[in-house]
């Protein structure tokens, strides 16, 4: 019989010492470490899902005692006309109130506060209706986070398994890295599949489980491509 996997919250560590610095994120990490000595008041981090943007945002918030802005709180924060540091995550996807965002960016450019923005897409692709907001965001230096090599992917696996308190043979991680689609998001998805498969069988993560997780992920991507193709045909 297979063991039913129980849903536990695996809280990832966002401690500064747990951030994995590599060639693909060293400049972004250095920028966060340089606060409060930023030559510009606004900084933008751009990268794919699971690349470490939120981890760096948490480090920045801890260093600066900054407040995290949400679409629900941005209007009140802008109206308060404060001076503290701010974190605005997923600025390209969460549809923040643009007049409020414009006001906060102006506060920063007047020297009243520092702001860290994160996004997946380049500024030109953001769904902004206000040219003034876009022009102000474009003035901010953009630091990109990328996965550059096998070592960084392996380190990401090691960290995610460490967050789950799961020990995995480094040879299995090497096996995964050599066969997976290369992105931070794939590391996160595969780590979750591996954990669940091992729990369902009541065993450690083995090479056979790694192979099964890779096959499962291939099936999921095939289904996603098929679904996307059907949606395009319907349009």
Automatic annotation (TrEMBL):
InterPro entries: P-loop_NTPase. This is DnaA protein. It comes from Devosia crocina. SUPFAM superfamilies: P-loop containing nucleoside triphosphate hydrolases.
